[in-house]
Amino acid sequence: MPIWQTAPMLLTRNLLYTGMTRAKKMLIVIGSKNIIDFMINNNDNKKRNTGLTYKIVNM
Length: 59
Prior knowledge:
Elements: E1 2-3, H1 13-21, E2 30-31, H2 33-41, H3 52-57
Parallel strand pairs: 1-2
Helix pairs in contact: 1-2
């Protein structure tokens, strides 16, 4: 899983968790320890406007 410096809004704990839990047999994380630490400590959740509720209701 490559992790590099990008917009802070993308460096979230949720994204790191998703990447780690999708690994089937092994996970190799490549990146700066500082950025990984930032992601672990960044518990900033943004409201996501996916329209999922609308799509489910109108199936």
